[in-house]
Amino acid sequence: MKIGLVGKNGSGKSVVCDYLKDQKKYTVISLSDIVRETAAAKGLEATRDNLIATGNELKATFGQSILAERSIKKVKSAENVVFDSIRNVAEVKLLKKAGVHMIGIDAPIEVRYERIKQRQRASDLVDFDTFKKQDEKESAGQSSGQNLNASLSECEAVFQNNGPLENLFTEIETHFSK
């Protein structure tokens, strides 16, 4: 089974990936890792703005689905794979063509902001107003190469992650056992 995760910053995509990796033995491939690797190769600090600019540059040069294309190439013979950090419709469509089941993870913005504050990635060190502005740009397609609302609408299911994690994991497992 191949699963693709679409979700806004702090929605819980990484938590779902960790669960699938640890409990279900999935291989995790993050589209964002390609952006991080490219930014690092250029000597850029891993701030959210630098990562967005790097991702936008890759997409402008190679097309909107480049991160998905490069991620698929990373999958060797693994049968169970979860693709993380899918951010635009071109990526969703390319992954669907490759047989990937697309699901979305979402949560209220306040909950997501508290989560990113706790995880303390370099790209997460922003105040709430900045987070909200970034979220609006990424959600509505104002950031080149990112349109999370449209991408979520392409998913076969969108799960709300605003309660106990066990509930989220049960909902996902139930969805795929149908």
Task: Describe the 3D structure.
It is a single chain. With 178 residues, the protein is of the alpha/beta class. It has one domain (2-177): Rossmann fold (3-Layer(aba) Sandwich). It is built from nine helices and five strands. It has helices at 13-24, 31-41, 48-62, 66-74, 89-97, 109-119, 128-140, 148-153, 165-177, and strands at 2-7, 27-30, 81-86, 101-106, 157-160. It has a five-stranded parallel β-sheet, sandwiched between helices. Helix 2 packs across helix 4. The two termini are 13 Å apart. The mean pLDDT is 90.
Large-scale geometry? globular
Largest sheet: 5 strands, parallel
Which oligomeric state applies?
single chain
Which strand order does the major sheet show?
2-3-1-4-5
Beta strand %: 5-15%
Query: Which structural class should the secondary elements be placed in?
Result: alpha/beta
CA radius of gyration is: 15 Å
Tally the helices: what do you get? Answer: 9
Uncertain segments are none
CATH class: Alpha Beta
Order of helices and strands: EHEHHHEHEHHHEH
Quote the distance from N terminus to C terminus.
Answer: 13 Å
For the secondary structure, the number of strands is 5
- Kindly report the CATH topology: Rossmann fold
CATH architecture classification: 3-Layer(aba) Sandwich
Give helix % range.
55-70%
Overall number of structural domains: 1
Full CATH superfamily name:
P-loop containing nucleotide triphosphate hydrolases
